[in-house]
Design brief:
Elements (H helix, E strand, L loop, with lengths): L5 H15 L4 H68 L2 H6 L5 H7 L14
Length: 126
C-alpha cells in the first residue's frame, strides 16, 4: 500500500520530536499505535466477513445446482415410471377388452360383464 522505508520513518520521528517535544511524543506514539491496531483489527474483521459471505454464496450456488439436479432426476424418474406403468397396463389388458371398449362396442362390453350375485353371502359357521 504505502512504500515507506526506514529513512522516511526516522525523518518523521525526528520532526515529531522537534515539534512536539519529548514530553508529548510518547503519548502520541501510544495513541497512534492504538489507532493503527484498531484499524488493523477492523480490516481483519472486514476481510473475514467478506470471506464468509463468499463461502455462503458458493454454498448457496452448490445447493441450488444440487436442487436443480434432483428436480431433473425426479422428472426423468417420473416420466420413466409413467412409461413403465403404461406398458404394464397395455401388456396386462387383453386385446379383447381393448376391442370391447371401442365406442361402438360399449354396450356389448356392459352386457358381457359378469353380473353381481343376487344372494347375500352366508355368515361363516362358528
Amino acid at each position: 500500500m504505502f512504500d515507506i522505508g526506514f529513512s522516511e520513518l526516522f525523518l518523521c520521528a525526528v520532526i515529531a520530536l522537534v515539534v512536539l517535544g519529548p514530553e508529548r511524543l510518547p503519548g502520541l506514539a501510544r495513541t497512534f499505535g492504538r489507532w493503527s491496531g484498531q484499524a488493523r483489527a477492523y480490516m481483519r474483521n472486514l476481510t473475514a466477513e467478506l470471506e464468509r459471505e463468499v463461502k455462503v454464496q458458493e454454498l448457496r450456488e452448490q445447493v441450488e445446482s444440487a436442487n436443480r439436479a434432483v428436480r431433473e432426476q425426479a422428472t426423468i424418474a417420473k416420466t420413466q415410471v409413467r412409461q413403465l406403468a403404461d406398458e404394464a397396463e397395455r401388456s396386462i389388458r387383453p386385446k379383447a377388452d381393448e376391442e370391447s371398449l371401442k365406442p361402438g362396442n360399449v354396450d356389448a362390453a356392459i352386457e358381457s360383464a359378469p353380473k353381481p350375485d343376487a344372494t347375500p353371502p352366508k355368515p361363516p359357521a362358528a
